Amino acid sequence: MKKILIIVAHPNLSQSIANRTWIEAFATHSDRYTVHDLYATYPGGNIDVAAEQALIEAHGSVIFQFPVYWFSSPPLLKQWFDSVFTHGWAFGSSATAFIQRPQTRFGRIARHTRGRLFMHRESRPYTHRNIDSV
Fold it and tell me: Which residue among 42, 86, 87, 122 has the highest number of C-beta atoms inside a 10 angstrom radius?
């Protein structure tokens, strides 16, 4: 089974107790998860698109972890989406990224409320999940 890629986009992760604790917990399971911190990897905002696409292709599922700012994501995550999910790779009639790899699963967004971890999925929205069952 392929590992799960957790893309972290928190501009101040060191000050976030809940998010930092959650990421540290996933990092202890490096055999199952790859934690990829966008703000640590790209402090200047220059995203390596080819490297990011290769990272996605090397994993079976992707979870996006980020704080919600007035119904939006942090600026670097928005830039990441615009840069990495390119026409011809992620979408469009000639897109190959997910046609050749239909097993890649997106659509998981993790959030916390008062210390609990919630996973939003199509099948069971807003269910409380233990970190070992993700």
Answer: 42
Question: In the block, which residue shows the tokens 């999925």?
Answer: 121
Instruction: In whole angstroms, give the CA distance from residue 133 to residue 57.
Output: 23
Terminal Cα-to-Cα distance of the chain (whole angstroms) = 14
Which class for 129: exposed (0-12), middle (13-18), buried (19 or more C-beta within 10 A)? Answer: middle
Per-residue pLDDT of 37-79, as tens digits, reads 999 999 999 999 999 999 998 988 888 888 887 778 899 999 9
pTM of the entire structure? 0.75
Indicate the Cα dihedral angle 133, 41, 75, 129, nearest 10°: 10
